[in-house]
Amino acid sequence: MAFADLTNDFVFRRIFATHPDILRGLLDDLLDRQGEQAIDAIEYLPSEQLPLVAGAKLSILDVRCKDRAGTTFVVEMQLIHHPGFVNRVVYNACKAYVGQLKSGKWYDTLTDVVAISICDFEIWPDAMQKAQGLAPVPMLSRWNMAERGSGNAGLLQVQYAFLELPKLPARRPESGASQWAWLFVHAPELTEVPADLPVVHREALALANKATFTQEELDAYEKVRDEIQQVLAIAEARWAEGKAEGEAAGFTRGKVSTILAILAARSLPVSTELRAHIESCDVPATLDQWIARATTAASAEEIVTPGALPGHERPMAK
Fold first, then answer.
1. Domain layout of the chain by residue ranges
2. What burial letters (b/e) apply to 275-300, b meaning 16+ CB within 10 Å?
3. DSSP for 233-247, written as a single string
4. How confident is the model at residue 23, as a pLDDT?
5. Distance (Å, rounded) from C-alpha 118 to C-alpha 220?
6. Cβ atoms within 10 A of the Cβ of 141, count?
7. Which end of the chain is more exposed for a tag (fewer CB within 10 A), N or C?
8. What is the DSSP string of 37-86?
9. 3-class DSSP assignment, residue 301
């Protein structure tokens, strides 16, 4: 028995966009809706399709639904931590909230919106939180507006939940949202449905059994898988390129700072024109020459090659 990857958009929608009971189970666990707070019924709403990476085929497809109380839930599977990701989540949640209000209707007709993002990356890495003196953010985090002094969480109209899959503990969890995270991470490694899984989790995993796929569904699954790999390769290449450019820029900025620091330490005045000229240089060898000259030059102007600055051209031979 082989299971498909639940983070694959085709499989994600096959399970959660067509089986409301399974989606309710996911929502109840991620939002801790138990007992009287459990979601009793949902109605699917039209989803939106948004570009993920410019030039790539893969798009973000969300699953939207509304419960009997009118609360709208927007559930997304995210594979890449692209720039502005959290801002986009907030924007779309707020757009879903204000989009309910039709012309001539009262504001009290607006109902709550909950945006849920299942992420195959870390949004708030523990190391980053520690470096900033902040508490670590758990694998499943829930967010809403609260009054700063009292902590009163009275503004619940727009709420957010993030499930960061890389934070899944090595040991298999026993219940709740962590078991969903475990399925998202480990389903492709399984060869059978674990007997001790809760019923709703077992139903979700059974729908990921590739033996139940038609040939058309297998083709669709593999097509999305290939597109995901393409997007990940593009994102990795862009990240590596940006990192290299950033390191190179930081390297040259360090040399520029060294030149200016030497001149300042020697109390040599630097004109605005000369400073701009030094800061605009991105050739490491030239900057190294200027660093060497800065230690002995009688004036700041002497560190640059004659003729490099406007108004300092070499005199022509007569």
1. 9-213, 251-303
2. eebbeebeeeebbeebbebbeebeeb
3. HHHHHHHHHHHHHHH
4. 94
5. 22
6. 15
7. C
8. GS---EEEE---EEESSTT-S-EEE-EEEEETT--EEEEEEE----TTHH
9. helix
